Structure of PadR family transcriptional regulator:
Amino acid sequence: MARVKQTELAVLCVLGVQPMTGYAVRAAIREQLGFFWSESFGQIYPALAELERTGLVERHEGTRAGSSTYSLTSDGRARLVQLLKEPDAPAPRRDGLMLRLFFGRVLGPDACRELVERARDSARQQLAVYEGVRASVEAETTFPEHQAYWLITISAGEHTARAAIDWAEETLASLDGQRERYVR
């Protein structure tokens, strides 16, 4: 799925929950989807303008400048469903840690160990954040029809973080075995 189409999908998704301003769309993407999705103001406002131009959202002027609220039209809701049904096209992966570890012989096991320890610590922090978000979502009463689906995505994040922690522990043990083989 092309980047523009992905932005369109993200904007339609958050507007599918409730009407909101462009700023609130950005905040919802950052705060609620930020664990697995990001968009910038530079992507959101052109997407909103295009969605309005094509009749997929409508703008309701606010009482002050820049406070327009956007809501989905019936065509916008149909487009949202259409986009959600399309298979996701994975983006090419760029993982700096894996690049460094692949060529870890150059760095040596101690430097690689530091990289992996940082990755493990980051995964532990991320897991703690997911656990906090889970508690908030489980206590949420505003959008009960969305709760089970939100918990599914949180669970994916928790599993990913736990897998990263397990991988890091296994890798650290492997690196310990590389010390005696490493000669600069």
In short: DSSP finds eight helices and three strands in the chain. The first strand starts at residue 20 and ends at 21. The beta strands are 20-21, 57-60, 69-72.
